[in-house]
Every structure is written in structure tokens, then in C-alpha cells.
Amino acid sequence: MKNRITEYFLIILGSVISAFTTYAFMIPSGIGSGGVTGIALSLNHLFGAKVGLTTILINVPLFIFGYRLLGRKFTIRSVFVVFVSSILLDNMNLFFKLPALEDRLLSSIFCGVLFGVAASLIFIAKGSTGGLDISAKIINNKFKSLQLSQLLLIEDIIVYILVGIVMGPSSVMYALIMSFVRTKTMDAIQEGLASSRQCVIICENSEVMINEIKTRLVRGVTVLDAVGGYSSGSKKFIYLVIQKNQLNTLRSIVGEIEPNSFVTISPVNTIIGNFTNRALTVQ
Questions:
Q1: Scanning 23, 29, 70, 129, which has its CA 20 to 30 A from the CA of 115?
Q2: CATH number (domain holding residue 259)
Q3: Ramachandran region of residue 232, left (φ > 0), alpha (ψ -120 to 50) or beta?
Q4: CB atoms within 10 A of CB 273
Q5: Last residue of a domain, which of 170, 193, 216?
Q6: Are 111 and 174 in contact (CB under 8 A)?
Q7: Is residue 177 part of a domain?
Q8: Range of the domain at 206
Q9: How far is the C-alpha of 153 from the C-alpha of 80, rounded, in Å?
Q10: Which stretches are transmembrane (predicted)?
């Protein structure tokens, strides 16, 4: 229950940030977008249709037809994201009004950063922002010969052509800048949360050290016999992989049990095998 509350808190926070970004920067500055948001912005530009309501109307059939592919939990949370962010977007003018930034480039950069943060929070909570990714998965499920990446590319091209015709080519250019910044922001957050470190601990009091690592870090270890080259004393060589955000706990464990242990820590780029990434969860 505690994890579920935390997850929905992250979902709501991400939805609020997403709605605020669209309201405060994207719409006033005339910045386009891909996916469902791009379609909604185009319809708003042509007919004055509410962006949030249009987003809901487009996403509802996608969620209905894609329910089996997405699964119950993921669908419910994604629907929740779409409804909360869309309703907030259409009603934010009731709470405050902000002047449009004159610098569209600055707006597109801010949009990218904030959308990246919002999407990361929602993904951590095992949700999504909906959109045409679902339709691509539906088509791919029916026609296996069509690659998912190709379908997503085709959808993006179609939407960007629509946005370019309706809102002008510059809107697409700024949208591409926003998309690039959003991707880099998400990568930075992912790297900050999920980057891993391989650690070697050479110590004498290995049993207590291993028990504390298993209990407090919930990580497995590999233990080898070692001999000190200078002292010729018997030692244990403990190898483990942890995430960057667990380093302080590991330092505390070593400092409490055997401060004179020899410890080395280095980055890990790729892990293959039985390693659970807990940094991108709320557990």
C-alpha cells in the first residue's frame, strides 16, 4: 500500500508538471509536438478545440483496443495520467495566467527539460502518457512483418507534417529541439538513478560484512579467498555490483565493520545476468 501511494504521488506530480508545461510554454509559444499532443495542438489551432479534451478523446479508443497488449495495471495508470494531465491542462487558466515567453527557443528548451522530468516520474511509477505508441503496438500485433520502430517513425512523420501545415514549419523545428532536450533529460535522470558501480572489498571480517550487505543493500556477493602480498595474511575478496545511490550505505557498512578494509569502486556500463535495477522503482 505504501508503494502504491508513492507511485500514484509520482504519477500525479508528473501529470501536474506535464500539464503546466503544455499550458505555460508549449501552447503560448506555438511549439508543436509529435504523437497525440501534436494532433490535439493542430485541432486547437484550427478549430479552437480544447487540447486536454481532444487528448482524452483520442486516447480512449487506443486504450480500449490496446488493453490486452498493455495489461491491466499499466493501462489503469496510463489512463489516470491522461485524464489528470488533460483535465488540469484545460482548467489551469482558472488558477493563474502566465504571459508567453518571447523567446521560442528558450520555451522549447524549458519544455524539453520539464517534459523529461515529468515523463521520468511517470515511468518510475510504472505508467505512461498514452499516445500513438499504443496504436503502433496494436498494428504491430496484427501485422508482425511491420517493425514497431518503423511504425513509430511513420506516425511521427505524419503528425509532424500535419503540425507543419497547420502551425507552420518553425513549430516543427522547435518541437524537434524540445524532443531532443527531453530525451537528454530523461537519459540524465536515468543515469543518475540507475548507474551501477562494481565494488571490490578485501577484508578479514567477511561474514559480518556479507550479512550486512545482504540485509541493508539486498545484494548478492561473490567471495574469493585472498592472501595479502605484504602481510601474507588470509583475507576475503568480496565482489558485488550496486547502484550509485547505494554507495553511501556501502561506505557506512564498511566503516562500521572494518574501516581498514581495502575497497575499490568503479563504474559499470553493461550488466548481463541476474541483477535487479531497484533505482527506477519506489521500493
A1: 70
A2: 3.30.70.120
A3: left
A4: 5
A5: 193
A6: no
A7: yes
A8: 195-268
A9: 26
A10: 7-27, 47-67, 105-125, 157-181
